[in-house]
Design a protein that fits this description.
Blueprint: E1 2-8, E2 15-23, E3 31-37, H1 44-52, H2 55-76, E4 79-85, H3 90-98, E5 105-112, H4 119-125, E6 130-132, H5 135-140, H6 145-150, E7 155-158, H7 167-172, E8 177-181, H8 196-204, E9 209-216, E10 226-233, H9 240-268
Parallel strand pairs: 4-5, 4-7, 5-6, 7-8
Antiparallel strand pairs: 1-2, 2-3, 8-9, 9-10
Helix pairs in contact: 3-9, 8-9
Length: 269
């Protein structure tokens, strides 16, 4: 809220006036220009004359207008998300369902390194375009950055994607790639630590709890800044299968919500 007060006696008007520029931060993003006169209404000609002769107020007013239009643009921006997956796509399916009617976030592309993966059937059923990638181009070519830009992808989610992300892709999407890991990092992360391998290691170590970690992706396996973690108990009679079920419940309950928060932050920043 910007409030400007001024006193004037121009053209028969006398008294104290207040100009308030309100920038509402809700979804409506309305813009109100309120003029209050203490004694008399003043004409549009006086208002124009006043701003022409008051350079500082004019600058502040213009700044308010620019802020309003920036807020309006952000309010209507759609964030296009690509989901990278290698397997059946259970997490991908939940993510698609969560964002199906979302105002600001759209699952616009499924990227897969496995032509036989079940996630591709999900993409077909949901009428979402998919891209099958090759190891050669991913690691020794442009890492598909051109294809992602052509599809206006703003944000990348790794949902059971088993290849390491190349540096070129990370540099193209700084702090815009997140991954979910089925353990409480920094424990039980790194190369080869995925799926049942993680759960077997957790049980073998006698851990009393496990969980999920959602983190930004950097050049190392399971190493980027952690955004979110939550836990579940590991019981004495748990097997890798039963622990995997507990972890899947946590993933399905939390992953999409964290994606929503992280993706919307790129607009604010």
């Amino acid at each position: 809220m910007f409030n400007f007060f001024f006193a004037t006696s121009d053209k028969g008007f006398s008294g104290l006036c207040k100009i308030s520029i309100s920038l509402c931060h809700n979804c409506v993003n309305t813009f109100e220009l309120l003029l209050h006169a203490a004694q008399l209404h003043f004409s549009a000609q006086f208002f124009t004359s006043f701003f022409q002769r008051n350079f500082i107020l004019q600058r502040l007013f213009n700044a308010g207008i620019k802020t309003f239009f920036k807020m309006t643009e952000d309010a209507f921006k759609v964030i296009h998300v690509a989901v990278f997956a290698s397997g059946t796509g259970s997490n991908t399916k939940r993510i698609i369902e969560y964002f199906r009617n979302h105002v600001h976030i759209k699952i616009s592309l499924i990227v897969c390194n496995n032509p036989g993966a079940g996630v591709l059937k999900i993409a077909e059923d949901e009428n979402i375009p998919y891209l099958i990638i090759s190891k050669e181009k991913f690691f020794h070519g442009n890492a598909y950055t051109g294809e992602l830009r052509e599809r206006k992808i703003d944000f990348i989610v790794l949902a059971g994607f088993l290849w390491k992300i190349p540096s070129l892709l990370i540099k193209s999407y700084p702090d815009k790639i997140i991954n979910i890991h089925p353990a409480l990092l920094p424990k039980y992360g790194g190369k080869g630590m995925y799926g049942h391998f993680v759960h077997e290691a957790v049980i073998a170590a006698g851990e009393k709890e496990s969980g999920i970690s959602i983190h930004y992706v950097d050049d190392l396996y399971d190493h980027g800044k952690i955004i979110f973690q939550t836990k579940c108990a590991v019981e004495e009679n748990d097997t890798p299968d039963t622990l995997a079920h507990k972890i899947h419940l946590l993933e399905h309950a939390h992953f999409a919500k964290v994606i929503e928060h992280a993706a919307q932050n790129i607009v604010k920043n």
